[in-house]
Design a protein that fits this description.
The chain is an alpha/beta fold. The protein contains 15 helices and 13 strands. Helix content is about 35%, strand content about 20%. About 5% of the residues have low confidence.
């Protein structure tokens, strides 16, 4: 992520600033940034939203953080206070040639929305119809969509004239063919209840695929990419000629890879088996698979790969097992994604683990030599810096590290749509 006062490569609307909001079940992350440069003017986070301990942290530059306790704990109160902290717009207006983030006006607010169902295939300007549609998809993401919607409604209450844009985690994957997104379940489950694979991390995949094309010096429309987004949540996607054709996450973000606290794929029969043998109900099983599994469940040490790797290096057997299972499942998924591409031009690692764990990347590449991927140990140790992201030796395919920036992608969508809305 680009830091306060730093810039990111790319283009966007040259005028104006965008407030990017990620409203969670008990937190609000935010950043005020310039879409053209990626410069963060302001950033921060409100935690423990909805409690008497609601706290707001504002980061104006890396070594200056202001913390305040908020007397009101609602999303509306929190976001209203965030808006109060935004710098006043100077004389510069979007598109008039003014420069300097301090002189640009606020052109819009962009919101991460987890689930758009089948309705949303791209980012959209928020209106009453969009709000109703997000609400109608809340059953697909009950822990996320209501919070995302609360953020939208809070901005609308505080700044009713400010354009808002909803950017959906699922939208990028709506190009998947039925063979990739349909489950082999009774038809009514799909037609009546929407049971299918939707995929997530779409905003990250969009940003990383575009950036990878730039680094490779090739048109995105001609590239076949497998992208591994590896953070606390993990998934892999197949991007063919710029569009998603397959991914590992499904109806929910629980499907697929081993993650920080999520199990990833398990035999669905485990529900009936543990219901009978352990007397566990659906809520208990779901909670365990989402919050007590993954790296945490396997290692017994942590959900953080850095801690697990350190423990494994010291001989902790369960930590070693966690790394082994994580790598095995990841390598399998990468190979599976190539099926939808017919050839592989690049394997791209991104997000926290993908960008920072040379060891995990090395373990994965050891297993993928038959795809034409051979690790360049020195480049991998440097995380692809100074080699335009490349971490592999010459061959028919290249392995790369490409840092993601979902906030910047949201900001650029917001600037583009807000400007179009004014015309």
């Amino acid at each position: 992520m680009t830091g306060i006062g730093e810039s990111a490569h790319g283009s966007g609307d040259p005028g104006g600033l965008v407030l990017v909001l990620n409203s969670g079940s008990s937190s609000v992350k935010f950043a005020l940034l310039a879409p053209a440069s990626g410069e963060r003017v302001l950033a921060g986070m409100a935690e423990k939203v909805g409690t008497r301990e609601t706290e707001l942290q504002i980061r104006q530059h890396p070594d200056h953080v202001v913390t305040e306790q908020l007397p009101e704990d609602s999303y509306q109160a929190v976001i209203s206070r965030i808006l109060d902290h935004l710098p006043e717009a100077g004389p510069g207006k979007a598109g008039d040639g003014s420069s300097g983030a301090g002189q640009a006006r606020l052109v819009g607010a962009g919101h991460r929305v987890v689930h758009g169902g089948e309705r949303f295939t791209a980012s959209v300007l928020v209106d009453d119809e969009v709000i109703d549609a997000i609400r109608s998809s809340s059953h697909l993401a009950p822990l996320h969509n209501p919070a995302n919607l609360a953020g939208i409604e809070a901005v609308r209450a505080a700044r009713p004239d400010l354009p808002q844009v909803a950017v959906f985690d699922t939208a990028f994957h709506q190009t998947m063919p039925p063979g990739a997104y349909r489950y082999a379940v009774p038809e009514e489950w799909y037609t009546r209840y929407g049971v299918r694979r939707y995929g997530f991390h779409g905003t990250s995949y969009r940003f990383v695929s575009e950036r990878a094309a730039v680094l490779l010096g090739r048109p995105l429309s001609e590239l076949r990419l497998v992208i591994a987004h590896l953070g606390n949540g993990c998934s892999v996607a197949a991007v063919r000629d710029g569009v998603s054709v397959d991914t590992t996450m499904g109806l929910t973000p629980l499907e697929g890879l081993v993650m920080g606290t999520r199990s990833g794929d398990v035999d669905p029969g485990v529900f009936g088996y543990l219901a009978e043998r352990a007397g566990l109900g659906i809520d208990e099983l779901s909670e365990a698979l989402n919050t007590a599994s993954g790296l945490q469940g396997l290692s017994g040490v942590s959900n953080d790969m850095r801690t697990v790797e350190a423990a494994a290096a010291e001989g902790h057997e369960r930590a070693r097992l966690a790394v082994t299972v994580f790598v095995h499942r990841l390598a399998k998924a990468i190979v599976a994604m190539v099926v939808g591409l017919e050839r592989l031009d690049a394997l791209v690692f991104t997000a926290g683990i993908g960008e920072n764990s040379a060891a995990i990347r090395s373990h994965v590449l050891e297993r993928l030599g038959f795809l034409g991927l051979t690790e360049d140990p020195e480049a991998n140790a440097r995380h692809g810096r100074d080699t335009r992201g490349r971490i592999s030796l010459g061959g028919p395919a290249v392995a790369m590290v490409v840092p993601t920036d979902e906030e910047l992608m949201i900001a650029r969508d917001t600037a583009r749509l807000a400007e179009a809305g004014w015309r």
